[in-house]
Amino acid sequence: MRGGRLFRYCATSAETSQVAQAEKEFAAMVNQKYALGVNSCSSAIMLALMAVGVEPGDQVITNGFTFTALPSTIMRLGAEPVLVEATKSWIMDLDDLEKKIAAFPDAKVLLLSHMRGKVADMDRVVEICEKNGITLVEDCAHSCGVTWRGKQLGYHAKVTAYSTQSDKVINSGEGGFVTTDDDEIAAKMIYLSGCYERRYGKHAVRPPDDLCEVAMAEMPNLSCRMNEVTAAVMRPLIKNLPQRVEAYNRRYDAVVKVLREEAGDVIVVPTQDERVGTVGDHLNFYLTGVTDEQNALFRQTCVAMGVPVSWFQSKVNARWHVNWRKYGSPTFDLPNTDEVLRFAYDLKMPPYFDDADFPAFARVIAYAARVAAGDDDL
């Protein structure tokens, strides 16, 4: 801050650039060859889609249950989202994925979101993509620290996007990374992100200079760079992520234990595939055996007692595909997704809470569920 070199290319070298060093550290964390820092995960997704060749008029297959940024970014490129159903585990329904590939044979890219760190069967995803000539792009916005078969999630894709927005376990306020092992794609994304002239020399992890020279001449400049302050904020959080994941999961387990013991007949917390290494930074659950009226009473009771659970079918929730239609996203009939989200909730697990706070708010949620269900023993 005192030096005033807040723009990444004002650094005297890659060695003195906070962004360049964060890219190097993040690439090592995710075990990929290249990582590029950008100003948001939406920008990371945009660059990823452009780098794999998505053009106006293309169809891009993606989740019907995810954050609004995915269909928005697809549409920003003039492409069309094709939405796939979700299962009761809140992951992409891979049977429906195969149906959508058959129904939309021109679609050649799958933008797969691991919403709230919930992971589909990645072995089968890769098999489906390879069988149908589909390029896989992973949205790992919620997946820093999440693993598949013991490795940081995101390695199956041609290009992967990660988030460091304030709701994520690496919190820089806003920001993201896009990663790849492909030299040519990395060069393209460096220049798409806002590199210009021969400033590729200020990237600590970069492809060969000849590829950067080609990208410099051919790529538009979209000015979505990460700045030095953002990178400086996140670098300690990259380093200590393993220790923090342990804390997240310990607290998450304490919450789930209370919910299952005190309201297990009403509250269902989805479980994950045993091949997934989880990060408990958000609590997701749904109510079972209740009516819409009881569901509304549950929400009212939680809020009245100071626990602001977020209902996925709220008219303002940015993760419900029906709300995306208001800005022109194509309409898809997703009855299974709608049924899953009808009684489904989301709650951040704040890292700044004390350990004792977690079972305390879990008891509020359990109590509200029992009130809604008409428990006579209260």
Question: What does this protein structure show overall?
Answer:
The protein has 378 residues and is an alpha/beta fold. Helices cover 39% and strands 15% of the residues. It contains 13 helices and 14 strands. The chain has helices at residues 18-30, 41-51, 69-76, 94-103, 122-132, 183-193, 209-218, 228-239, 241-263, 292-304, 321-324, 335-341, 357-372; strands at residues 34-38, 59-63, 80-84, 109-113, 135-140, 147-148, 151-152, 159-163, 176-180, 267-268, 276-277, 282-287, 310-311, 344-348. The strands form 3 sheets. Strands 1-9-8-5-4-2-3 form a 7-stranded mixed β-sheet, with helices on both faces. Strand 6 and strand 7 form a beta hairpin. Helix 1 runs parallel beside helix 8 (228-239) and helix 2 (41-51) crosses helix 3. The longest helix is centred in the middle third of the chain and has 23 residues, at 241-263.
Q: How are the elements arranged and paired?
A:
Blueprint: H1 18-30, E1 34-38, H2 41-51, E2 59-63, H3 69-76, E3 80-84, H4 94-103, E4 109-113, H5 122-132, E5 135-140, E6 147-148, E7 151-152, E8 159-163, E9 176-180, H6 183-193, H7 209-218, H8 228-239, H9 241-263, E10 267-268, E11 276-277, E12 282-287, H10 292-304, E13 310-311, H11 321-324, H12 335-341, E14 344-348, H13 357-372
Parallel strand pairs: 2-3, 2-4, 4-5, 5-8
Antiparallel strand pairs: 1-9, 6-7, 6-11, 8-9, 10-12, 12-14, 13-14
Helix pairs in contact: 1-8, 2-3, 2-6, 6-7, 9-13, 10-13
